[in-house]
Amino acid sequence: MELPLLHLALVGTPNSGKTSLFNALTGSRQKVANYPGVTVERKEGFFVTPLGRQVSVVDLPGTYSLRGRSPDEEITRDFVLGKATGEIVPDLVLCVADSTNLRLTIRLLLELKRTGRPMILVLNMFDIASRRGITVDVVRLAKELGVPVVTSIAVRKGGTADLLALTDEISAKLATEPQENSWRALSVSELRSTQREADRIIADCVSLPARPDTWTARIDAVVLHPVGGLIVLALILFFMFQAVFAWAQPLMDLLKSGFDALGEFVHATLPEGLFQSFLQDGAISGVGSVIVFLPQIIIIFLFILLLEDFGYMARAAFLMDRIMGGAGLHGRAFIPLLSSFACAIPGIMATRVIDNKRDRLTTILISPLMTCSARIPVYTLIISAFIPAKDVWGFINLQGLVMFGLYAAGIASALAVSFVIKFFMIRDYAPAPFMLELPDYKMPRLKSIVIGIYTRAKMFLVRAGTTIFSMMVLIWFLASFPQPPAGATEPAIDFSLAAMIGKALAPLLAPVGFNWQIAVALIPGMAAREVAVAALGTVYAIEGGKEAAEQIGQVLATKWSLATALSMLAWYIFAPQCASTLAVIRRETGSWAWMGVTFTYMLVLAYAASFVTYNVALALGAG
Amino acid sequence: MTDTTDTRSHMPLGLAQRGYTGVIQHLAAKQAGSALSDVELESRLIELGFVEGARVEVLHEGLVGRDPIAVRVDSITIAVRRREAMAIIVA
């Protein structure tokens, strides 16, 4: 008879190398999902032991204790205690420790022992510890702790062999009698005495050399220097931006022409008609317009994962904490906001590193205000059509200045919104203190990075892809039905529901200077902001769409007033209409309400900004 | 818990300059003025290894108001704001 699936759970402090052990055990056989009802990432993987036992292993969020002070930590606690909804009680808990840094993990393990779960202590990164002259009396440690102890080197091939063998050995004789759980939240004095006990055991079993990691100290001398550190950070960011915009471009062009070619192929192969239009204009170009951003997302995550694995992220948060604190943002919000310049979707996903709920929510709400790359086509089009390419003060290009101004306006409004949120929420929610371990630097491992990028790219394609696809079907439907009567000379879109909606919305948008064509363009802009450019082209019945951006520009220059153009730019600083961002916000906050709040506040800001811009421009004679 | 044999005067870690080294004497969460409750702050500090007898060294300071600080606590480095570090009494 085949043995049932063995359930393992990985528990450990942050930076214990839990995730690299998880990757070493399971390779690419991983499933990333969310725990029911919360937005904590649930990572489960599968492997087979040397004796052929099928194993499922869950990588639980890092924690210093079972108190559960954040949603992540609550998951870890409930999972270990067998209280997590819809989850199976783990048969065996692997408590993962960084061998160079045992103090905090041994304390956690002493607390975990009280849950009565069968457990193994895994001394991970044992090679680094040996190299630094740290010796551990493994036999004695196991005896003192009353828990089997095994060493592992997750990043080396075969480095988990002992762990696998021990798992087999223990799972063969796992007790079936009910386990006694004597865990309850520790009081301060119990915490203190557990730490003392942990320190005593470590003193007995581990010999530490007097030399700390000199590399970390040397790098930190530069990287955490009050001024030098900020310069290094700025250089890293500059390089990252360059990479996101420059490296991604050829790939994005390639993807775009691939989708265009596929669309053309469908166009040429299928008979003229609704199905052809649906496939080409709805499915292929719609989904394509989003998948085009995959290279940027991969590059952003490449940087984030590299910096994270290296140990730099905690340093960036340290450097930025007080600077961002003025606007009510947590130091850890820095990286998510940075990612949002490429696209708010990876940015919002990256807010998971913020453990405090309020800080995370604030960051999610303002992420879409960072000027994402999808706004660039819209900005470029309008700026080149309406802003003269002359120099001001002799050396600054006016077009570049306007572009810079739009970015600056986005950042300023994000800080302002954050400040307002802080002002309104501070009464019922204590701001999180900044307390963060700065781990020793470690060489990032290729395998971990590749697996990390792969799982995130897959998630982006599957999740955002399904949402986008359904949105695109809807928009295509609105733009295609009802069909124009036979012999009609106007563009088909004039007869569609989209045009009806556009004309219905036009009176609402008239105070900000938008005509019905813009209203129509804003609708497909819902799926991806830059689609608005192609949509304007369609509405003004120009062949060639986005490729002929110059041409659209000329037409716009004759049809719009300068005030309307400036109003449109102001609108796009806020541009609330990005369906995929809204979908990600819904998923990450687990709430339709916050999605609604984001949409509403951005819409209000966009309308207000456009209204002011339009009327000021009119007053100055730009009508 | 006060160490009378110690000749150095006790002070909160939150006032320490870069390069300061000392030993934790006790925790006084009430003095910190942190947004966290006393119990929560004390628990978190202990969980990060700030317990009596631990050796601390202030390694780095931030730019604005020399805040936060990076503190070596025995074998690990912890970043903490000065406000919370006021709860750690060292000598």
UniProtKB/TrEMBL annotation, chain A:
Can you name a GO cellular component term?
plasma membrane
Compartments, as annotated in UniProt: Cell inner membrane
According to the entry, every stretch annotated as the FeoB-type G domain falls at 5-173
Q: Pfam families, alphabetically?
A: FeoB_C (PF07664), FeoB_N (PF02421), Gate (PF07670)
Alphabetically ordered keywords of this record:
Cell inner membrane, Cell membrane, GTP-binding, Ion transport, Iron, Iron transport, Membrane, Nucleotide-binding, Transmembrane, Transmembrane helix, Transport
Q: Which PROSITE patterns match?
A: G_FEOB
Q: Where are the transmembrane segments?
A: 227-248, 283-307, 327-349, 361-389, 401-425, 460-479, 491-512, 519-542, 562-585, 592-614
Domain of life, per lineage:
Bacteria
Mind listing the GO molecular function terms for this protein? ferrous iron transmembrane transporter activity; GTP binding
Q: Which InterPro entries match?
A: Fe2_transport_prot_B_C (IPR011640), FeoB_GTPase (IPR050860), G_FEOB_dom (IPR030389), Gate_dom (IPR011642), GTP-bd (IPR006073), P-loop_NTPase (IPR027417)
Q: What is its main location?
A: membrane
Q: SUPFAM superfamilies from the xrefs?
A: P-loop containing nucleoside triphosphate hydrolases
Provide the membrane topology annotation. Multi-pass membrane protein
Q: Can you say what this protein is called? A: Fe(2+) transporter FeoB
Give the source lineage, highest ranks first.
Answer: Bacteria, Pseudomonadati, Pseudomonadota, Alphaproteobacteria, Hyphomicrobiales
TrEMBL record, chain B:
Keyword line: Iron
Q: Which SMART domains does the UniProt entry name for this protein?
A: FeoA
The domain of life is: Bacteria
- UniProt GO MF annotations: transition metal ion binding
Ranges for domain Ferrous iron transporter FeoA-like come to 11-91
Gene3D superfamilies registered for this protein in UniProt: 2.30.30.90
InterPro entries annotated for this entry? Fe-transptr_FeoA-like, FeoA, FeoA_core_dom, Transcriptional_repressor_C
Pfam families registered for this protein in UniProt:
FeoA (PF04023)
Is the Iron keyword given for this protein? Answer: yes
What is the name listed in the Swiss-Prot or TrEMBL entry for this protein?
A: Ferrous iron transport protein A
Taxonomic source organism: Bradyrhizobium forestalis
